[in-house]
Amino acid sequence: MVKKRVIPCLDVAGGRVVKGVNFVDLREMGEPIDLATRYSELGADELVFLDITATLEGRGPILELIERAAAELTIPFTVGGGVTGLDDARSLLRAGADKVAINRAAFDDPSILAALADEFGSQAVVCAIDARAGEVVTHAGERARGRDAVDWAVEAVERGAGEILVTSIDADGTRNGYDLPLTRAVVAAVEVPVIASGGAGEARHLAEAFGVGAEAAIIASIVHERPERLPELKAELKEAGWNVRT
Amino acid sequence: MSVVLVDYGAGNLRSVASAFARAGAATSITVDPAVVLDAPLAVIAGVGHVESAARGLEANGLDVAIRERVAAGRPVLGICVGMQLLFGPSDEGGAGMEILGGAVRRVRAARVPHMGWNTLEITQPAELVDGLEGEDVYFAHSYAVEPTDDSVVVAVVDHGGRIVAAVQNGSVAGVQFHPERSALAGARVLENALAWSRSA
What we know:
The complex is a heterodimer of chains A (246) and B (200). With 246 residues, chain A is of the alpha/beta class. Chain A has a single domain (5-239), classed as Aldolase class I (TIM Barrel), CATH 3.20.20.70. Helix content of chain A is 38%, strand content 27%. Chain A is built from eleven helices and twelve strands. Chain A has helices at 32-41, 54-57, 63-72, 86-94, 104-108, 111-120, 149-159, 180-189, 203-211, 221-225, 229-239; strands spanning 5-13, 16-21, 24-30, 47-51, 77-80, 99-102, 125-132, 135-138, 143-148, 163-168, 194-197, 216-219. An eight-stranded parallel β-barrel of chain A has the order 1-4-5-6-7-10-11-12, surrounded by seven helices. In chain A, helix 1 (32-41) runs parallel beside helix 3 (63-72), helix 4 (86-94) packs parallel to helix 6 (111-120) and helix 7 (149-159) runs parallel beside helix 8 (180-189). The longest helix of chain A has 11 residues, at 149-159. Residues 20-26 of chain A have low confidence and may be disordered. Chain B contains six helices and twelve strands. Chain B has helices at 14-22, 33-38, 50-59, 62-71, 81-84, 183-199; strands at 2-6, 26-30, 41-44, 76-79, 102-106, 114-119, 121-122, 136-141, 143-147, 153-158, 162-169, 172-175. Chain B has an eight-stranded mixed β-sheet, sandwiched between helices. Chain B has a two-stranded antiparallel sheet with strand order 5-9. In chain B, a hairpin with a 3-residue loop joins strand 10 and strand 11. The two termini of chain B are 14 Å apart. The chains are: A alpha/beta (246), B alpha/beta (200).
């Protein structure tokens, strides 16, 4: 069977990797390609580059970073953050991203999910959903949208998304574990793989996310501080009986 | 050793080109059927639908060049949608070049797309999958080939049932997974493909 995935997320701002607690208090973490290569060598199953300031600043994503990553990395990577619409998403995929994660632009105009799936296949289209107390929020957590996150996930898949990346803003950066009720609800509502995000602190948290049916789990600060934690996490998951790549 | 990637307008081919370069091959990307015809190894990669990919090939006469290569016994490797293009009608719409017999069917599993690392089971010895029994490689697809002749299948994986992961038949080979995104196991596949293409 296909293995459960552990996916380091590199939040990128101004070409550097950062990771915030509850989306604020950013601290510099390092150069993206260096970290990405290190994680690949340490057994990361995929990577996500998320340009977390792009939506706020209206800045386009960094195509040069993608081109380098496409040539140098030997594992798949997703790029998201600051995707303003169809043309923007298309440019990311054409630059060499394996997948594009679309958040607000898809919420504002769901038809772009179908357009991208038609051109690149749904496997290249990740719908990223940020939620607070089960409600969709956008603009780096600043704007509540008055729609149930699970309901939006179902529509996103119908429109063409091949994966749902669900981030709990409440849990993000806390290291207290993923939002399991939210993750479980999305898993039950869609038939595409679901990626849990926000709150990973230890191997037990990833196991919990897999336990409610997530196919993959995002990790960030716990490995940015000490990359060697990554193979340890996977070894612990394997020891606990999870089907992970080690 | 020179590898030519067939550019039919279906996405970025640089990651595949870079992976072949790491495996020691000189690579180029072309829309020119004459270059495709003459290359020591022609690779069909890319993403998207079989239907639009087939149209992209036909628009530049690339399908003719690939058929001529196959008829002359010169090696062709398909990757992901490129492998599906070697087969016939697709559930997704359209049809491939029918160089190998069989259809492209939607994956029947609880979670589709089939996304992530899965473990290869080698079904018969073949150059392409030499040394890869039990190795994990990366998949990202919703459709998969179902060959009419099982003897072309050289590796499978399990995802809600059997999925054909690799085929090899004479000078024609294909992989459903992404060797360029499959770390060391993927590099081994590309090295194998280069060795196979020299002897095919």
